[in-house]
Sequence to fold (740 residues):
Amino acid sequence: MQETQEKQARGRTPTWVIGTVPLLLLGALVWVFLTYGPLGVFQAAFPPVEELSIQRIVLPEPGVIQLEIINGGPDPVTVAQVLVDEAYWVHTIEPARTIPRLGRATITIPYSWVEGDTHEIMLITATGVTFTAEIAVATESPKPNALYLGTFTLLGIYVGVIPVGIGLLWFPFLRRITRRWLNFFLALTVGLLLFLGVDAVAEALELAAEQVPGPFQGVALILIGGLGTFLALDAFVRWTTSGARDETRARLVLAYMIALGIGLHNLGEGLAIGAAYAVGEISLGAFLVLGFMLHNTTEGLAIVAPIAKDRPARLLGHLAAMGALAGAPTIAGTWIGGFTYSPIWATFFLAVGAGAIFQVVHAIGKLMRQQSDDRASRLFNAAGLMAGLVIMYVTGLLVTA
Amino acid sequence: MSSEKVTRRGFLKLSAVGAAGVSGGAALLQRERGLASDVPTAPQGNGDPYDSHFGLGGVGDVDLTKFDPSAYLTDFDYGEVSTLENGQTLREYTIVSVDKEIEVAPGIYFPAWTYNGQVPGPTLRATEGDRIRIHFTNAGSHPHTLHFHGIHAVNMDGVWEVIENGQSYTYEFDAEPFGLHLYHCHTTPLKTHIHKGLYGVFIVDPPAPRPPAKELVMMMNGFDTNFDGDNEIYAVNTVGFHFMRHPIPIKKDELVRIYLVNITEFDPINSIHIHANFFDIYPTGTRLEPDGFTDTAMFCQGERAILEFRYKFPGNFIFHAHQSEFSELGWFGTFEVTE
Fold:
């Protein structure tokens, strides 16, 4: 009887129509606004809010400066003049001097920039608003040729692949220690990962605030990228390990997840290194590369800790695969960062890396809770976690140089 | 060493600060004339200066039908002339203050406050001893005044009697002393009312006129287009680089007399340097004998001088502020000297 009533109620108007009514009303309202303009208060003659975002500065050859800009404001913006180091300069703007909302333009300035100097570029719009960007250390931008590809690849291998590989060699050591000490190192891994995750989020937030044009909503990108990755990986892990009572396999999957998370993190790191190298921000002294190597070696330890007590088949193959998964993205990162760079994508990738890392932290934590039932092991775990954070902090000091 | 400042976090930040370099040298651009590396080495220097000067000067031109700085050079307002009962010459002027958007460099518009719709306001000219009567009406959105540099009664000084929007006031005084003077709004906040454009030149000729010459009025001014208390544009006669795009024609050996006034706001001084020449300088124009013979002079705000010189050689000679910063921000021009 009740069911029949519900059916009748549903029967009169299809559900999707009812669901669409608010949307139709909204559409009508938008149409009215666009046709007749906003009525009343909004029509006051506010000065237009202009917002230009300088995305990249490229020095493709001596005597030429190129800028890529995005209009992140609500209205079109006209770039009237361009100044270099407080001097009005000739230039061209493609495709047009007036840039629509969310539109892009490339400004080319013939200017004999000075190797190693700092230069300031200022754009003045038709309304006299100014936007400035700095070339901190002028140096010719890398081109994707054999020399730079080689340099970046080597860079990626140094700071990504080699350290992770070395870290993996802790595997035999981990096999010999007791369960309690192994848990200590697992906790240490959690500490390392937490540090990397928080670091990535902080960097992403900084980029979002400083470089991502308003309409692209950097913080929302971070939320979507980070949480999306977390949920996707979590579902993936459940799917690959469900049903199988095989805990060995579950831990192997976990190790791969750690490798993936670290790989995504290293992609972001490579991106930053490549971009900085491209503009001569870092000359990559031996000490700096050394710092990154020490810093990243700990990542290898993190990968193998979960499988230390297992004897999976084709162990060497797995180790190699996990090492590549964690280290190789650094190379790709340096390429992308060195040859093309977008703060929007960089923010998103950082968030994806952070999401992956937090998923792994979540998974290891679950694993450890199952294995640590007495007070002493909890103490070991806490100590391990803190040790991980401190190791990252101290090796981070080396990178800071 | 710069690399030592880099941190793990700093990498992204640095690259983000806009230094973000990249690009695979994809599009190598078409080089244009004016490229720094193409600086012409023509011995005469008689080429088109706008093209050849290292790419300095920006692009385009302003709408000269609205305001032409070249026309302003020689545009003198002698007023409506009549004779008073006592035989004194009376010159009557009408000045209305209006808000108006002006173009201060190609494509850059500035919401100015103006006298008679132009910045600088009209150049008022009289002879020492004339009676000056100015009918001032404030049609702008803010209260304004007219403050003349000269000798006059306190209620003619344009300080205490602030003229509200829609009101009028008549300023009346004798033109004295002879020399090169200026007028400007003296309503507070002063910085705002002056840099917005409320100023003009006031020339009082000596009873016995100066020798005939090509006379040019130049007002050194600047515009703070983004309102940060610092000028984005410097110029003589408002438009940055105008006299680079439109050189001032001069005949060789012709006597040139420049009435130069500095009203530049925000900066303590401004200056002028004339190339390949020296000039007689008459500070404030209140003496008929020159005070010096030089090629560079500097002025605080409100300071002015008459400069006299002749060009011995033909060619394009530049003149500019001898603060490189100001000249590269627009205070830069050219004399085109011909036989």
